[in-house]
Design a protein that fits this description.
With about 150 residues, the protein is of the alpha/beta class. It is about 50% helix and about 20% strand.
């Protein structure tokens, strides 16, 4: 199956690093999870992410969301509530099936809001690529199990 990923990160360097880490996962490792291909899309602001989510005819299997997003692309005003808004909107719309929040914000309240908003995992910035890959695959596996269980009912 193709894994459709959305990376919402205001730093282009960080977003490209995330994509590179995921693209470097050995094919054998991906196939153990039933993944045959990666399709990655990017957004760098609240407005850009909301636009991508509204225009979907197929949900993203996994979204990697930075909490601290500017309102518009290139904007300087990062705010953790914007990432939370994108997460809630995507989950409620059905455009995001599972989410991993990646953030430099270390406040317990931000972590709790992410989980309450629908995130399956939370990763603080300054992570190892192996941690990122493990949590993305965990989101995928949980999403796959959930879809299987819904089919059986």
């Amino acid at each position: 199956m193709k894994l459709h990923l959305l990376i919402v990160e205001n730093s282009e360097t960080q977003a490209r690093g995330i994509a590179l880490a995921l693209r470097q996962v050995p094919e054998a490792s991906l196939s153990r999870h039933g993944i045959t291909e990666l399709a990655i899309e990017f957004a760098s602001s609240e407005t850009g992410a909301l636009h991508l989510l509204m225009g979907r005819d197929r949900p993203f299997d996994v979204a990697l969301l930075d909490l601290g997003l500017p309102k518009e692309d290139g904007g300087p005003d990062e705010d953790p509530s914007r990432g939370q808004k994108v997460l809630r909107f995507g989950i409620e719309l059905g455009a995001i099936r599972s989410a991993l929040v990646i953030s430099a914000f270390h406040e317990p309240e931000d972590v709790l809001k992410a989980f309450r908003g629908g995130a399956l995992n939370f990763l603080f910035k300054e992570y190892e690529d192996s941690e990122l890959v493990e949590l993305v695959l965990d989101c995928w596996d949980r999403r796959t199990r959930q879809l299987s269980n819904n089919t059986l009912m």
